[in-house]
Amino acid sequence: MKKLLLGASALTLCAGFSGAAYADFTLNILHINDFHSRFDPITSSASNCDATTDAAGECFGGIARLKTIIDETRAKYDGGNSLLLSAGDNFQGSLYYTTYKSKVVSDFFNQMGFDVVATGNHEFDDGPEEFRKFIDAAEFPIIGGNFDVTRDPSLAGKIKGSIVIEIGGEKIGIIGATAEDTPEIASTDDIEFYDVIQYVRGASEALDAAGINKIILLSHIGYTVDLEVAAALPLVDVIVGGHSHTLLSNTAEGAAGPYPTMVKNPDGVEVPVVQANQYGKYLGDIAITWDDKGVVTKAVGEPYLIDASVKGDEAFATQLAELAGPISELTGKVIGTTTGALEGSREVCRAQECSMGNLLADAILDRAADQGATIAFQNGGGIRSSIDAGQITVGDVLTVLPFSNTLATVQISGADVIEALENGVSDVENGAGRFAQVAGLKYSFDLKKPAGSRVSDVQVLIGGDAWGPIDEDATYTIVTNDYVRGGGDGYGTFAEGDNPYDFGPPLEQVVADYIAKLGGEYTPYTDGRITEIK
């Protein structure tokens, strides 16, 4: 049943609706996405912010500031209607998560008063059991609909696909959706994922049939997929998204689109789509107005940049300082210096050659050279932060590489190397983490061509010092991380290769040893090993 066909007679059949259902209703939605356990402030390049830089007012975010601005914004709407949402990926990305796992997230999020939280792909990084601990500890509902947990003993019966909450006398349906490729990029075990559009279609129709005429999709599927969902489905009113770390804004430089981005659904009604960047740097703030038929008539807002003008919540700052104590000695150890900034942002490292990708690929190739490796692959999604010029600490490297991955080698043909590169550039448009940073290899790609036929001019080192075309029939020893070697990020080519060997050591140790081998000082560079054909 189309929402536009629902009249007052349909609403009168649904108990619990107040007279307010026959007038405009405005809901103020506050939201974050892709927090990634970045509890400390970050620099403008999303690297760790040291105390001196923070004191100089040059840093952003941090859980204490986020708590302050949430409290102040909700107080501003006191007497109005507000909703606090997270669009997922609250796990993984800092030493706080590495040390304390899901408990540190649930402890702070409980105190912040989230109303509903979506499931992100990184919530499965430590397997379903750790996700279950988060669900059990949370004092808020966690939703995720397009996956089946019935076969997993940790999660069976623990999570719902949608939820109905009442605000200001109105019932609001909220549907969860998570990236379909999560099994390729996380440890989902027996959990099966389904088509997002088909799931959301069914869930929204069920809510509509129950008389719920205000429906929000809280998604972790990425901005471009959000736009597709909005255009395809008639019953979804608002989409609050995550996964692609997209900044939408009407004022900020470099925004990917307006806030909100409006998309016409099949009935010609415009659906607002919002997202609020990453790491708690922004708090999304959108006011949605529905008419008495449940049709959105107005959507106004702008994400709030959480800069040094926001005073952090003192109680949160104290709690965080206590948690930082046990890990500060390790994180503060200096392993070297960099003469310039190491570019590790997702916007760059998932779309082109980046200096952090070169460092990592060079380091792992150097470490595995005595194993016969001549080519290195580092997935862009495994690079989680930049490092500013100056000292490089253990904490910096662990923030860049938070997944506890180890080195692994495998033997594949030259044709399979090309296939792996095709996988790497198959979803650049959506910022997929599979993009291949490489060493011992050069390649070009053309995004104007269809996925699967984008790669050209693949070259390898011949004789150790000259570049030449790759031999598709030859066998090459590849070094990468254990996640990619096992088929993660769509690299099934590696999972099916010969003589796989997950020998370690951890990537962060490899990088530290490589910088030490270079004398403790590193100069970031790019050298044209990856070329996009324009």
Number of domains: 2
The helix fraction, in percent, is 25-40%
User: CATH homologous superfamily of the largest domain, by name?
Assistant: Metallo-dependent phosphatases
Give Rg in angstroms: 24 Å
- Count of DSSP-assigned helices: 17
* Class computed from helices, strands and strand pairing: alpha/beta
Strand fraction band? 15-25%
List the helices and strands and how they pair.
Blueprint: H1 8-11, E1 25-32, H2 51-55, H3 63-76, E2 82-86, H4 95-100, H5 102-112, E3 116-118, H6 127-137, E4 142-143, E5 147-148, E6 162-167, E7 170-178, H7 182-185, E8 192-193, H8 196-209, E9 215-220, H9 223-232, E10 238-240, E11 261-264, E12 270-274, E13 282-290, E14 296-301, E15 304-305, H10 314-331, E16 334-338, H11 346-349, H12 355-368, E17 375-379, E18 390-393, H13 394-400, E19 407-413, H14 414-424, E20 436-439, E21 441-445, E22 455-462, E23 466-469, E24 475-481, H15 482-485, H16 492-495, E25 498-501, H17 507-517, E26 521-522, E27 530-532
Parallel strand pairs: 1-2, 2-3, 3-4, 7-9, 9-10, 10-12, 16-26, 17-24, 21-27
Antiparallel strand pairs: 1-13, 5-8, 6-7, 11-12, 13-14, 13-15, 16-18, 17-20, 19-24, 19-25, 21-22, 22-23
Helix pairs in contact: 5-6, 12-17
